[in-house]
């Protein structure tokens, strides 16, 4: 052992303190480093994998533990939550998920038939364990795509609702707005619906015309076969402005992406 030079390393849960002591050197002049511990470094990598839905495989000796153990627990909990999201899907949606493990599919089917809360909780934990044996990234990506489509559909629905309300509020001018946007629209039908809505509002009747107009506008907005139309004049908001053109382009792009699967 070289007594003139000593390398001392103190590995903790959060940091590792390194001191290179050399004989003849004042203590304050020795090399000193404070670095993240390997448990912290690995914990960050596990957290990144959890956010990206990637699997984690650890091997070797573990020093410190703390942050890494916590990150692994959160990772396993995320896998169980991913499994719970699969349980909540409809049969049609579940069939769209890239799941090849028959045990996992069987467990998902079984938990749907369980009424007891305690038994359901145990079965969800089983699903979480089964999720550790597969690559969760494709499933997480498929779920994200499904949620994105659902959100886009909700946004399109609300935008069309706003358009319907604007048309009804504008009266005769609203009819012209519809015709300017969809020249192929039936002017007489739109005019009758607007007038019917005015009568229903005056008489305090249910808004039947409003619902009919919404369905008709939705039909007008649907693409013709494989032709998708986008224009600033075809926007749900800011019609005639660049903001409307951007909104319409985004909507048409989403429709194309949905049609392509």
Give a description of the structure.
The chain is mainly alpha-helical and 261 residues long. α1 packs parallel to α2 and α7 (172-181) packs antiparallel against α8. The mean pLDDT is 83. β2 and β3 (31-36) form a beta hairpin. It folds into three domains: 5-36, no CATH class; 61-135, PSPTO4464-like domains (Diphtheria Toxin Repressor, domain 2, Orthogonal Bundle), CATH 1.10.60.30; 140-260, Orthogonal Bundle (Diphtheria Toxin Repressor, domain 2), CATH 1.10.60. The protein has helices at residues 38-52, 66-87, 91-95, 102-111, 117-131, 137-170, 172-181, 187-203, 208-221, 242-260; strands at 5-11, 15-22, 31-36. The N and C termini lie far apart (67 Å). The protein has a three-stranded antiparallel β-sheet with strand order 1-2-3.
Entry summary:
This protein is mainly alpha-helical and 261 residues long. It is built from 10 helices and 3 strands, in the order βββαααααααααα. The chain is elongated, with a radius of gyration of 30 Å.
């Amino acid at each position: 052992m070289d007594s003139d030079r000593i390398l001392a390393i103190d590995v903790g849960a959060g940091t590792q303190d390194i001191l290179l002591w050399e004989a003849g050197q004042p203590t304050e002049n020795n090399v000193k480093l404070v670095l993240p511990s390997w448990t912290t470094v690995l914990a960050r990598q596990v957290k990144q994998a959890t956010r990206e839905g990637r699997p984690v495989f650890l091997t070797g000796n573990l020093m410190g533990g703390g942050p890494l153990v916590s990150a692994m627990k959160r990772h396993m909990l995320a896998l169980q939550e991913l499994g719970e999201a699969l349980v909540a899907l409809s049969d049609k949606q579940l069939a769209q998920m890239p799941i090849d493990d028959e045990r996992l599919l069987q467990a998902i089917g079984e938990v749907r038939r369980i009424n007891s809360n305690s038994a359901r909780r145990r079965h969800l934990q089983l699903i979480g364990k089964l999720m550790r044996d597969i690559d969760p990234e494709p499933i997480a990506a498929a779920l994200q795509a499904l949620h994105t489509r659902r959100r886009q559909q909700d946004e399109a629905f609300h935008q069309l609702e706003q358009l319907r309300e604007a048309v009804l509020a504008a009266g005769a001018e609203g009819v012209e707005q519809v015709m300017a946007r969809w020249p192929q629209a039936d002017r007489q039908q739109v005019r009758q619906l607007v007038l019917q809505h005015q009568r229903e509002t005056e008489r305090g009747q249910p808004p039947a015309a409003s619902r009919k107009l919404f369905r008709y506008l939705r039909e007008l907005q649907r693409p013709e076969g494989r032709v998708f139309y986008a224009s600033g004049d075809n926007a749900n908001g800011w019609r005639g402005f660049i903001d409307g053109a951007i909104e319409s382009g985004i909507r048409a792009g989403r429709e194309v992406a949905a049609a392509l699967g």
